[in-house]
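Retro notes, structure queue

What went well: the backlog is down to a handful. What didn't: a couple of records were mislabeled last round, so from now on we paste the full input next to the output in the thread. Example, using DUF1806 family protein from Paenibacillus anseongense:
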Amino acid sequence: MITINRSKVEDELQAFIGHDVYIHSEATSFVFVRNFKVKVTHAFVAGEGPFRAALRFDGHGWLRMEALTHYEIDANGRLLLAGYDDRGRMNVALHVGKEPFPE
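Corresponding output:
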């Protein structure tokens, strides 16, 4: 994974607008969601680092993840966002793809 470039990541997120996508999202010890299918209507990245990413889906709900620091596009075209602490431990993740994630 590489350090987030805000404009690049926002462009990648906005490429999912208008499409049905699958979401994998987790916050260490608090939340875990896998293969939640939504239609993305808006996508934003905010902050100066660490970053916040927000997805509006189906015109009536939001998912927002905070403390994101790194990203990559995998071989299947999925956008993988993660937030690492100063000791290199992952605290949050937001993955978006057009196909379901492996169970």
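Agreed that this is the format going forward. Reviewer comment attached to the example: Residues 34 and 68 are 18 Å apart (CA to CA).
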